[in-house]
Amino acid sequence: DAGVIQSPRHEVTEMGQEVTLRCKPISGHDYLFWYRQTMMRGLELLIYFNNNVPIDDSGMPEDRFSAKMPNASFSTLKIQPSEPRDSAVYFCATNYHYGYTFGSGTRLTVV
Amino acid sequence: QQQVKQSPQSLIVQKGGISIINCAYENTAFDYFPWYQQFPGKGPALLIAIRPDVSEKKEGRFTISFNKSAKQFSLHIMDSQPGDSATYFCAARGYGGATNKLIFGTGTLLAVQP
Hints:
The complex is a heterodimer.
Chain A: E1 5-7, E2 10-13, E3 19-24, E4 31-38, E5 42-50, E6 53-56, E7 65-71, E8 74-79, E9 88-95, E10 100-102, E11 106-110
Parallel strand pairs in A: 2-11
Antiparallel strand pairs in A: 1-3, 3-8, 4-5, 4-9, 5-6, 7-8, 9-10, 9-11
Chain B: E1 4-7, E2 10-14, E3 19-25, E4 30-38, E5 45-50, E6 56-59, E7 62-67, E8 72-77, E9 86-94, E10 102-104, E11 108-113
Parallel strand pairs in B: 2-11
Antiparallel strand pairs in B: 1-3, 3-8, 4-5, 4-9, 6-7, 7-8, 9-10, 9-11
């Protein structure tokens, strides 16, 4: 099993641009989570899905953030327009019963 | 609103010593308490976890101690090694599959000196 696969690993973009982060979950895992990690705020849950349906998006900071899971094999997190304060590492994690498996993350830098 | 408080923020331990990281929670509806280990440039990885019906769980050099009445749990790393140097996160999960989301502590940066 290749684990949770995220792309890109690194993204540098200019303020105002659209950014799309991608995640391929582990096959058979029915929950998918998007987290954001910063030094100041630690690991923050942004949104999570169960069987491709968004369950809780209360952690999404602003309307500039959106997430989709069109099928069990793929999810995206989009930021439009991006701002420098969005710079962080974004993790995707999947879960079946107990124990989350995290991807390696996408380090986003908005300049 | 932070529901899991973790301390210390950073910790320096000599090789062979015991590393102890503490967490406290407020929500009595939590039913699963994992610890995650994160190395630089990597995602957090599950290290060890405990359910509230037991007071201790041990896996190799890693032990979780759980005090349900005090709503506290801790991670003990025995015989700490330089390879254990990483950031450690405690977490807690609410009851029921519908609330299957982990709330993380703020993390502890552990440095084990050779």
